[in-house]
Fold this protein.
Amino acid sequence: NKRLQQTYSFADNVTWIRGANTFRLGGDFKRHRYDSALPEEQATEFEKFDSITQLLTGNATEADTQFGVTEKSFRFADVGAYLAADWKVSRSLTLNLGMRYELFMWPTERDGRIGNFDFEAFEPCFTQAGGSNTLCDNPTPGFVVPSNVRPTGLANVDAAVAATARAGNDHTMRGQDVNNFAPRVGFAYSPRWKSFGDLFSEDRAVIRGGFGISYDRIFSNLLSGVRGNPPFFARVGLCCSSTNNAADPGPILYSFAIGDSPFVYPNNPALRRGIDPLTGGLLDPNPQTLPGGFVRRDIPVEINGAPENLPNAYVYNYSLEFQYQLTAKTITSIGYQGSLGRKLIRTIDLNRYTPGDTFDLNRDRVQTANADGTPVTPRLTGNPNFDRIFFPLPDVNSSYNAMLLRVTRQYARGLQGEVVYRWSKSIDTSSFGRGVQQDYPSDQSLMRGPSDFDVRHNVVATALWDVPFFRDRKGVVGSLLGGFQIDGIFTWRTGFPFTPIVFAPEQSDPNGDGILPDRPTQYFGGDIRGNSNEDFINGLFGNRGPAIFGVFSDCNDFPRRCFNSIVRGAPGIGRNSFRGPGYRSLDVSLVKQTRLGFLGEAANLELRANMFNVFNLLNLPSFQPATDQVNVTHPDFGRATFGLAGRVVELQARFSF
């Protein structure tokens, strides 16, 4: 087992000051190396047992097994350069101008052990309309390997590599995203409008604003997942065994080791049919002819990939602020901040069953009905020879808009403080590059809603007080009773959003895509309680979640019997359309500074007591996706079942000299 991660970096910056103007330029270079050899990946993982008996006997219903070459060595680099200038145009106006360039190189593998999936050639197969039999049922040339590929020494793997198309480069992508120029401009203007008397005299007001573009490297894990792809490696899901006897062992073999060696086990007959040279997967001993004449020839393998044309994500940032000095020590400001994210990443399963696919109760990726149940001519909406195909798609847009109010009291007479209020809204169609899957990825318009991290109202107040008593006293009295300081942070915010979901049996899958959970197709409104802690403890919707969202279930005899009915179709509620519990807390620190002059001029002893949530206020957790709290048929739907941490006291001592 080996995991090695190294980063080599070099950076240099130059600053030139000429009069009232400042010029800066610089650059940086980073070289990343990631080596791994994970032999444990060539193993079987038991994932599902339908009963305690199956668990105790090892007779799994579902299992995953992996095989192939696990030793990989990835390399990639980042290059950046910038030029900036602060130009003081006049006494009242300063401009900040700059340009930055970013180049994020695609990962390569030392021996070319990358198997990327050619999505563009098969794009029609992964749409609602589906593709032709000739295109979608033939995986060639489904994979592409780099030009620097080398033999692995494994005959079956090398045969599959030889039958795979080669890219014209070492990374299988069509080229680098090289136009990542990021201009930035800002200004600060202090008006001196004499017609307003003394209101704008002596630089009491400042107007600031700015605009800039920022680029981001795509999270490397979204691309390095190709390490587990055919023709070098394969992940196979085995399903669904329910027996364990010599006459009918099923696809999952449960066996003890042979002889006295704990490392020798009998081969599973279901995995000894050979490697399909076209897909790198396992040949199915019993190929299936599906509706419409499509043929499934392999035991489906799970793969990862990346579009050959994958741009870097970027964000437009802009702001405008008006700051005014009310008194000698009090400053107020009102401002606006905004951003627009473009070409952000979402990761989806390209081979996911499209809406309507499973209304015939067959998970075969052959669609015989639309999402509303209307029969259609059988068509492939995926590739039946593959399992999940995880792909990062650069088609997410986001927006953020916020108003900021700030009041600051600068330090005077031992006291300083600040209060900041933010009123904001963040909107997107997917909040994270990889994680919880979108519940309706086939239609981005139905995924648009508040971001998972959106907080509508937020207040943060900070204060620091140097206790004046005995502060200037000398001797023992001053050392014991002086030097105290109290500071605190008060935080209050509204709750994070959440989306009600439905876990329904396949017989009543709301949108027929075979993937759960889904959003309810109906919402009758009403019966929502307030947003106090008591409301969330008792249940935001009471016990009427199924009735409010049109879901009727009877699972009292689960798992032997479970009935769930719902009107089928697209989601009837928006994503993140409800709000979870808010948050409030006061953190206080009591600090005692004692100078130890007899040990030196700079010697000092600091004693600190940090009290987090000093009043022990009850705060409830936000509702996370795919949990009982968002499942409309669960008794805990809309109900907080535990609290966050209460009062925590931390004691510190620090001696400096």
User: Anything to note?
Assistant: The longest strand covers residues 386-412. The first helix runs from residue 52 to 57. Confidence is low (pLDDT under 50) at residues 242-249.
